[in-house]
Amino acid sequence: MSPCSIQTLQPSPQHQQQRQYVVGYALTSKKVKSFLQPKLEGLARNNGISFVPIDHNRPLSDQGPFDVVLHKMTGREWRQILEEYRQIHPKVLVLDPPDAIKRLQNRQSMLQCVADMNLSEFCGKVGVPRQLVIQRDASSIPDFVAKAGLRLPLVAKPLVNDGSAKSHELSIAYDRFSLQKLEPPLVLQEFVNHGGVLFKVFIVGEAIKVVRRFSLPNVTKRDLLSNAGVYRFPRVSCAAASADDADLDPSVAGMMFYHVTVFEGTQFIESFLLGTYSKDYPKNFVKDWIWENAWV
Ligand SMILES: Nc1ncnc2c1ncn2[C@@H]1O[C@H](COP(=O)(O)OP(=O)(O)OP(=O)(O)O)[C@@H](O)[C@H]1O
Ligand SMILES: O=P(O)(O)O[C@H]1[C@H](O)[C@@H](O)[C@H](OP(=O)(O)O)[C@@H](OP(=O)(O)O)[C@H]1O
């Protein structure tokens, strides 16, 4: 070993004092691949945070000690293990405790809080698409849809949102007959034209990041006349569909400003101005646009 490398092994005084945190994680292999990337682990290590896999073959309380438990698992048995663990270890921060995220694992209940906010008066721009839950029996879907008066085309999403690849799949049914080809349990929503772009908002504590993604394009009257059947989309608006650098129609690029200001206030705007804003707009214009249009 060279003197140089010996030197680098000496922890700095600052390093010696750094509090160490252990994060026990229970993640699917899909999530480990996408989330626990070497860059994140390196960054965490430099900040005194280490990630340790939870062994499902051993009692959770025998493992650790953990400062944080990070999980993205579902199922009754796992829920029970976690709840018991929380009772015995109240000081351990369990991220996403099962009871708290229950409503997000069902696409019907997840939107209920938006509906409850009753924001339809905000120029009618904040709302939930008209939707219907189908629990079983695909052959009855056309009748249910007719009774509910839902307008085609319809977007079909799996009712359960458990983080599996399957739960992110989405279908569009253009005609009444093809509705029978869908697989319940699912949520059927009226298609809402939104300019083919989606804004994803990531919030961790004080940190906010907004990204733009290409989404499903608007459905025109012509599409309705010429399209039939069910179209399946495994992953709409995934990271590969980034529209951050795209020159978007200003009316679409500006849409976000209204929504974010209604919900999050100035902090959000600042983040938006610093981060993802339309290249077509000078910053001051964007700021003025927000002040003039958002709090009317
Ligand atoms: N009713 C709808 N009308 C038109 N487009 C829709 C509708 N619902 C969803 N989309 C589009 O489909 C995509 C995925 O919708 P989904 O409801 O699965 O979102 P999500 O669960 O928040 O996505 P993610 O799986 O990335 O977390 C988005 O791009 C969205 O714009
Ligand atoms: O690629 P972005 O835009 O970040 O979309 C994410 C979704 O918003 C998350 O819901 C996915 O996580 P889950 O599959 O655990 O729900 C997440 O799944 P992943 O962590 O397996 O990639 C992503 O698909």
TrEMBL record:
Domain Inositol-tetrakisphosphate 1-kinase N-terminal, chain residue ranges per copy: 22-101
Cofactor(s), names only, from the UniProt record: Mg(2+)
Reactions catalysed, as given in the entry: 1D-myo-inositol 3,4,5,6-tetrakisphosphate + ATP = 1D-myo-inositol 1,3,4,5,6-pentakisphosphate + ADP + H(+)
Record has Metal-binding as a keyword: yes
Superkingdom, taxonomy of origin: Eukaryota
Gene3D superfamilies for this protein: 3.30.1490.220, 3.40.50.11370
UniProt domain Inositol 1,3,4-trisphosphate 5/6-kinase ATP-grasp: residue ranges: 124-252
Keyword Coiled coil: no
The enzyme's E.C. designation: 2.7.1.134
Cofactor note: Binds 2 magnesium ions per subunit.
InterPro entries given in the database record: Inositol_tetrakis-P_1-kinase, InsP(3)kin_ATP-grasp, ITPK1_N
Pfam family, one: Ins134_P3_kin
Principal EC category: transferase
Keywords: ATP-binding, Kinase, Magnesium, Metal-binding, Nucleotide-binding, Transferase
Function as written in the Swiss-Prot or TrEMBL entry: Kinase that can phosphorylate various inositol polyphosphate such as Ins(3,4,5,6)P4 or Ins(1,3,4)P3.
Similarity-based family: Belongs to the ITPK1 family.
Subunit and partners: Monomer.
Name of the protein: Inositol-tetrakisphosphate 1-kinase
Species of the source: Hibiscus sabdariffa
